[in-house]
Specification:
By secondary structure, the chain is α/β, with parallel strands linked by helices. The protein has helices at residues 15-22, 45-55, 75-86, 101-118, 133-137, 139-143, 156-163, 186-198, 214-226, 240-246, 251-269, 284-299; strands spanning 6-11, 28-32, 62-66, 92-95, 125-130, 149-154, 202-205, 231-234, 275-277, 280-282. It contains 12 helices and 10 strands. Helix 3 (75-86) links the parallel strand 3 (62-66) and strand 4 (92-95).
């Protein structure tokens, strides 16, 4: 799967923002029909998104569309309208407020029908947003609900509301974390990561609400990366570089991975199952981590195959 370090959320009803998003450095562009679109504009927003998808050059970016929730009068219509018109051109449908595996089953079966009706050769994926206590309680079942699933995404603001957590910032999206002695969302994020990785899915972090606070964003990215998440949403183009950098291997990371792989290959050639580098043991688990790091660096063009030697 292509990297999803950064996902730029773009209001679906504002066409000029779609053009700007194409020119950004984000890995994923998510055209949004949900929270960023006013209720009075929701009926017209799908046609604006369809026009943009058909007319703009999205280059090599991953393109997704967030539909409205299935508990609204808009969700099923978004799914059929977008799916039938441009399903062949989008990577995934992003499903908000995924509370149960049944939500994923419904979307997956609807996509089955759309693809059969339209004769699509391309299979549309699903990204499920976990943003309630119920969704987190069911996250393991959600993660294995469909082979269309690509990612699980943490929806921090709605999740906070669902458990009655204090509103400690203007946006409710991860700022002012000093209200708790530690990482306030460590358990929730780790639980989602475990469920995602057990099914070979990516895990994506919620956006950071204060786009004028680069240090806070960097901290949030560092924490998410340390917990095993693969990327983070962005609500403003100015956040993309920081997010991409945080979720990309650093030069030190790549050098360490290459060193580990070299030591392991030498040990294997000598008939040993483990090796040591600077007095530290390297075994199969270490090698798997190093291979993942090197593969990501190669995909992102940070190194070439020859750089391993």
């Amino acid at each position: 799967m292509k990297p999803r370090r950064s996902t730029l959320s773009v209001p679906g009803h504002i066409e000029k923002m779609h053009t700007k998003a194409c020119q950004s450095k984000t890995d994923v562009i998510m055209l949004d029909l949900e929270d960023s679109v006013p209720v009075e504009t929701k009926p017209d927003a799908p046609s604006i998104i369809i026009k943009s998808i058909e007319s703009l050059d999205w280059k090599d970016k991953t393109l997704t569309v967030r539909i409205n929730g299935l508990d609204t009068p808009f969700g099923y219509r978004d799914l059929t309208t977008i799916g039938e018109a441009v399903g062949q051109r989008i990577d995934t449908v992003v499903l908000p407020k995924t509370d149960d595996a049944g939500d994923v089953h419904f979307v997956s079966r609807m996509l089955d029908g759309i693809e059969m009706h339209k004769g699509f050769s391309h299979r549309i994926g699903i990204e499920a947003i976990i943003e309630s206590a119920r969704g987190l309680a069911n996250v393991k079942r959600i993660a294995r609900a469909s082979d269309r699933l690509k990612t699980l995404v943490f929806g921090i603001a709605d999740y906070s509301a669902s458990i009655g957590a204090r509103l400690v910032s203007l946006s409710g999206h991860g700022e002012e974390e000093d209200v708790y002695p530690g990482h306030r969302w460590h358990f929730e994020m780790s639980r989602m990561v475990m469920a995602a990785k057990a099914q070979n899915l990516m895990a994506i972090d919620a956006p950071y609400g204060n786009f004028k606070d680069p240090k806070g964003l960097e901290w949030a990215c560092t924490m998410a990366c340390a917990l095993g998440l693969n990327g983070k949403w962005a609500i403003h183009p100015s956040q993309i570089d920081t997010i991409n950098r945080a979720f990309s291997p650093s030069k030190e990371d790549v050098a360490r991975a290459i060193k580990v792989l070299g030591a392991y290959e030498r040990a294997k050639a000598e008939g040993r199952g483990a090796a040591a580098v600077n007095g530290r043991m390297i075994d199969g688990a270490t090698v798997r981590l190093a291979r993942q790091m090197k593969a990501q660096a190669e995909y992102l063009g940070l190194i070439k195959v020859s750089d391993e030697k």
